[in-house]
Design brief:
Two copies of one chain form a homodimer. By secondary structure, the first copy, chain A, is of the alpha/beta class. The first copy, chain A, has one domain: Pyruvate-ferredoxin Oxidoreductase, domain 3, CATH 3.40.920. Chain A contains six helices and six strands. Chain A has a six-stranded mixed beta sheet, sandwiched between helices. The radius of gyration of chain A is 15 Å and the shape is globular. The interface between A and B is medium-sized, with 25 and 25 residues. Strand 2 of chain A pairs antiparallel with strand 2 of chain B.
Chain lengths: 177, 177
């Protein structure tokens, strides 16, 4: 078993996936691991599909490029079509309930849950869908500890939004159970 | 001549180089180019040397890894020792005035200027050394337009700090002239 875990977080521009990638990498560091976080942008970045990639490893990471993600998150259909189908998936797929997965895609585990609806209706802010997603990822993989994830989030979110983000994270834990 | 430009931004943790990398990549996008931004963290990341890498290209970027930077920024001696010496440099080196460069290192151009002192004394906030650095990089390379850089900074800095950051950017332009 490899001690390197690769994640691809995808969705629409403006869904906070860059922040999610940074927080996840920083949580890995708080757990004493190595991490890389990569954001790739094309001219279509504004509004179109966006992805953020993270590698967390017990040892130094040679190449920051994610090739066969152990986990792929897709919050929108466009992101799923663009970023899931291109790889041979042997890992976990996490998608919003509204996303349809091509039946040809192979995976070990699919988690299809109401991420955006939970952010919007339960927390009251669609923008925290990224934090709900992090909760799902942590609960499903244990790739970082819950303590590290909570600290990493509190280090990066705007002052005054701590409680909201903590609720979003906990809703993510619940969705993955 | 390659149409791909690779940059490595290094310094100490807490100097805002992740933000500088994100802003630079986003400025590239505003100019209609492709970009990647990668942050690598080791367990020593807290307080130690930190680096953020950016690639800006006219066409899609195959590998987000910076191998032979066209420009390397180092704000601290530790970062210069760690991140300049490892590469064969054929490009531009930008360092703070207090940083000594190993005489064995080859470069096309060295810009050694008071980045941190300018941030601290002229702008009044050491934390804007990252934005002063961006001003130097833009003036020295034209890798992104000044209009795109200004918009990208204003998109990312906290509300209320726009004027401060604009001054920091302009001080960087002046230092590189």
């Amino acid at each position: 078993m490899s001690n390197q875990f690769e994640l691809r977080l995808s969705g629409a521009g403006g869904q906070g996936l860059l922040l999610a990638g940074i927080v996840l990498a920083e949580a890995g560091i708080l757990d004493g691991k190595f991490a890389t976080q990569t954001q790739s942008y094309g001219p279509e970045a504004r509004g179109g599909a966006s992805k953020s990639e993270v590698i967390i490893s017990d040892s130094e990471i040679d190449y920051p490029e994610v090739r066969t993600p152990n986990l792929t998150l897709a919050l929108t259909q466009e992101a799923a079509d663009k970023y899931i189908s291109k790889d041979i998936i042997n890992g976990i797929i996490v998608v919003d309930e509204r996303v349809e997965i091509d039946p040809a895609i192979k995976y070990e585990k699919l988690i299809r849950v109401p991420i955006i609806k939970t952010a919007k209706n339960k927390i009251g802010k669609a923008i925290v869908a990224n934090i709900v997603s992090l909760g799902i990822i942590v609960e499903a993989t244990n790739i970082v500890s819950k303590e590290a994830m909570e600290s990493a989030i509190l280090n990066r979110v705007p002052k005054g939004t701590e409680k909201l983000n903590r609720m979003a994270l906990e809703s993510g834990y619940e969705l993955a159970k």
